[in-house]
Amino acid sequence: MFGRDKTGKYTCKQTIRGKLDGNVREELSSKKTTYQMTAVLSVKSLTKFYGSIQALKNVSFDVPKGSVFGILGPNGSGKTTLLGIVMDVLKPSSGTFEFFGKNPDAETRRHMGTLLETPNFYHYLSGEQNLRIAAEIKQRGEEQIDDVLKKVNLYQRRKSKFSTYSLGMKQRLAIASSLLGNPDVLVFDEPTNGLDPVGIAEIRDLIRQLAAEGKTIIMASHILDEVEKVCTHVAIIQKGDLKTVGTVADVLSYHADETLSTEISSDNNEQLLVVVRTLPGVITAFAEEGHVRVVSEKSFTAKDLNRLCFENGIVLNRLVQQRKSLETTFLEITGKVSEQ
Length: 340
Description:
The chain is an alpha/beta fold. The protein contains 11 helices and 16 strands. Strands 8-9-10-6-11-12 form a 6-stranded mixed sheet, with helices on both faces. It has a 4-stranded antiparallel sheet with strand order 14-15-13-16, with helices on both faces. A 3-stranded antiparallel sheet has the order 1-2-3, with no helix packed on it.
């Protein structure tokens, strides 16, 4: 079982059983071993003001090595500001951050690849030519161009002009650029933003592949489904506040023993949503495609839900209890999908 001691170092308690002298069994319980497991990124009380507007409010968390760490929040929640600070594009109003247990310097940043904005390449040049320019700017990685193009599945189109690429291909070329120099850490801001379902699937598969190779990936997103599918850890931010942080499994267990999630629908889902939100025992309810999602107290059963809807003049044509999703948990924690 992992934890931290008073110095902040990770520790592991182990129970060891073994034979001594071939006959005697000796139990050594709670043997404490200290591991030097420095977090890849450690954010400590980061705060950022834009004039009178506070974009980040005392945010602190650690990113474990080898994780796919999702920073999740509605548009305007402070995700991009946070990434801008840790990538040294913005300066915090207060607070600190460390990479690999130290203040980042030029050498540290050589082990990092970033995609913070919409891909910005020369439209009249090929993908290969654009990567050569990127490698020259970085002063590293030129010999890796063919390899990274193959990794992002663009090698066959390496001679094609950037202007002929689909949105998904442009995003994959930007990720290829971030891979030049073989960085240990990748930082992506909304890597699937603006993509169609095919493009999203391409980027999702690529992130999984990079994670399987041992890269630590930090990605900001407002797409809950994508975070749930690719991330191992998640931090939820709302209006600059860090609401929760942990493994995806830990976050999904939020109130897991106290709530039920149910999909329902009727001939008039708009009216259904209005009525359901007034029912005793309902924590929150929100519209999804073709149905209404209801998060209720554990004691509020599907039978109760069906009965109360009927008593309010609504006949349900769908009632299915669901496993808890990150979207459900997100709405329980933040209370809304968007702050705009």
